[in-house]
Amino acid sequence: MSNCIFCKIVNGELPSENVYQDEEIIAFKDIKPQASVHVLVIPKKHIDSADALEQEDAGLAGRLILTAAKIAGQFNLGNGYRIVTNIGEDGGQAVEHLHFHLLGGEKLKDSF
Ligand code: DGP
Questions:
Q1: What domains does the chain contain, in order, with CATH numbers?
Q2: 6-33 pLDDT, tens digit each
Q3: Angle made by CA atoms 73, 79, 83, in degrees to the nearest 5
Q4: Distance 30 CA to ligand 1 centre (A)
């Protein structure tokens, strides 16, 4: 999607501090961290949100979570962490490209 910030990150048109990348997934540090570790894990393919996932995306959806967990290991978050995805306006989604927030490195507040 031409006007999507995260597609621009995927295409290298916008800078990002990447912590992981493979052929279908990229993960980078959130520009406005809400915890000492705050990484966004996204599919390279544009999908609006978790609500827009299709049956054919089931494998990718699973790999996004597995990747977030793997990155948690990379950041030594053995004491616990949170994986969150916001959906739509009421869910607090600001960027309309599916992303999982990986948050940790401290005792997290009850809400995010
Ligand atoms: P959400 O509210 O769930 O859509 O979260 C969007 C997150 O994306 C928010 O925590 C800030 C982050 N973000 C927005 N623009 C950029 C950007 O250009 N670069 C990076 N690294 N993060 C961004």
A1: 5-104 (3.30.428.10)
A2: 999 999 999 999 999 999 999 999 999 9
A3: 65
A4: 6
